Amino acid sequence: MDMGLATMAVNFNTAKVYNDVSTAILAKAMDMTQSYGEGIVQMLDSAAMERSVNPSVGSNIDISV
User: Fold this and answer.
1) Could you count the other beta carbons within 10 Å of the beta carbon of residue 25?
2) What is the mean pLDDT of the chain?
3) Nearest in space to 38 (alpha carbons), one of 46, 28, 27
4) 63: which DSSP letter?
5) pTM exceeds 0.70, yes or no
6) Maximum Cα–Cα distance for the chain, whole Å?
């Protein structure tokens, strides 16, 4: 296969653009995952605080049939 220098340069630049886009998408996904994780930690902390103030709330269920 006879590839000219110009074709190889275009292919290289195309691959570089794809790599840059993939890296940017991965960075955005990592940021979103970190944000979700922080939200979950905050939610768990607030639930723990509620249990410390009202320890009996949510610990028992009264059922009558």
Assistant:
1) 10
2) 86
3) 46
4) -
5) no
6) 83
